[in-house]
Amino acid sequence: MSHLKLWLLTNTFFITVITSQTLLAQNQIPTTLDGPFKPVTRRFDPSFRRGSDDLPMNHPRLKKNVTSNFPEQISLAISSPTSMWVSWVTGEAQIGSNVIPLDPASVASEVWYGKESGKYTSRGKGDSTIYTQLYPFEGLLNYTSGIIHHVRIDGLEPETKYFYKCGDSSIPAMSEEHVFETLPLPGPNAYPCRIAIIGDLGLTSNSSTTIDHVIANDPSMILMVGDLTYANQYLTTGGKGVPCYSCAFPDAPIRETYQPRWDGWGRFMEPLISSSPMMVIEGNHEIEPQVSGITFKSYLTRYAVPSEESGSNSNFYYSFDAGGIHFVMLGAYVDYNSTGAQYSWLKKDLYQVDRAKTPWLVAAWHPPWYNSYSSHYQEFECMRQEMEELLYQYRVDIVFSGHVHAYERMNRVFNYTLDPCGPVYITVGDGGNIEKIDVDHADEPGNCPSAGDNMPEFGGVCHINFSSGPAEGKFCWDKQPEWSAFRESSFGHGILEVVNSTYALWTWHRNQDIYRGDSHGDQIYVVRPPELCIDSTLEGSGRPGDGGVTNEAADMLARWTWFAAWIEMLTVAVIWTSVY
């Protein structure tokens, strides 16, 4: 090698090192490799109201704008990497003492679709159904839905735009044209552009701001982590919804609902979910008890999920792939015990995950396991004790939940102990619902719940005192827990952007930042450390790794990542000098 080439090679190497350090200094977005982070609390801004009233049913975004049997409340959901569910409602819902269900067979279920606007080269047919919400109490009104249609369209090409109409062509009553874009096939190098995460949305003015903000962020898909409509904040006669049902209606014979709110919510969401698939999981506000102990009827009937496709055969829990991400949606309001059907399905599903094809593993359910707010504190501790170890063994990367009406992001944690191989738990129950924002923290004086508070609406009670660490022997910490990295009481939503098989950018957008350009409430790169936390001989096999590691090992991995990047650039420099 000539002196000139050696000079060029040496200078290229040092320029690479300096450039990398400069980029590090300029890039203010932290990564999880920088953690665990010192806990931070951003206090509730007293200049904001803690909540707002529900939008009335005659609001332009909630009222019915089609006639007769034309489709409305159109929505999409992922069925498989090459198929999509299209759902909609036709006909008139009824509410009253004596309601007569519509005949689902009276209107056909068709979807016309193709790759060019106005040219529909394929057609799909599906099924239709109705449901009733009946109350065996004098003075309470019953409800029967419009006809709910579900059509699965197949043979879709990945990352392709499709135009579609739905309805019944024989009437004729077809919808206007809508458009969606399919997601990438499972693989380590292709991911959805943006995934919106929303929880506890409701139908208030704050909910409107949240959805407007989500639409502006143009998501490829939406995860809705429970508590959709808050129809159970009403009496069956309608009227005005309330923030606290038991406070307003202490003598109600049953937790009533005003089911037309579901129809209003479907219309409210249609501009978003008719073009971006929405994947839902149930929350406590979907329980909606009625006659004969029937529950969850609205949730189970209105929205399609890939339950059969994922082998769960239950709309309460299922899984699906979106590019290089495997999503697991779990049910907190059905049996989650290790001896039950959901646990058995989950174990099988996780075992079958090929991390070489879908490197990222993301889970979601409604109530959080890790939560430092007073509201719902340790409410689902039983579920955590049953399921956490299994998720940890299979190295779930991120967990999304709602239920608590605030935002909180955790440091990587397992069994209340900081662990670089634990998931990043994130609570986004701040969609804007009528129950208002949560502001009290369990670690603040006077805010620690009693053992009789926060009783779950399903499952047992497993409240515990901490057995080790700074809160040893206590039910609550006396400061923000070390596993709570950041918390803030504001309405908003999150966006997950997976960059590659190792890095994913998480951004939490506060509603008050909607008009502030690139402003955001919280942002971090979640970094997968597979070399650190999974035995290399098991990578891609679907089997769990060999246990956790120390923070020193995590630091070593971070240094190795940058060293490897320098070596890669140095290799390029060598090739360049050898050519020239």
Automatic annotation (TrEMBL):
GO MF assignments: acid phosphatase activity; metal ion binding
Family matches, as InterPro entries: Calcineurin-like_PHP, Metallo-depent_PP-like, MPP_PAP, PAPs-like, PAPs_C, PAPs_N, Purple_acid_Pase-like_N
Record's keyword terms, sorted: Glycoprotein, Hydrolase, Signal, Zinc
Keyword Transit peptide: no
Catalysed reactions, as listed in the record: a phosphate monoester + H2O = an alcohol + phosphate
The keyword Magnesium belongs to this UniProt entry's keyword annotation: no
Cofactor list: Fe cation; Zn(2+)
Ranges where the Purple acid phosphatase N-terminal domain occurs: 71-182
Signal peptide: 1-20
Domain Purple acid phosphatase C-terminal: 472-513
Residue stretches making up the Calcineurin-like phosphoesterase domain: 194-407
EC number(s) given by UniProt: 3.1.3.2
Domain of life: Eukaryota
Enzyme class: hydrolase
Family stated for the protein in its record: Belongs to the metallophosphoesterase superfamily. Purple acid phosphatase family.
Stated name of the protein: Purple acid phosphatase
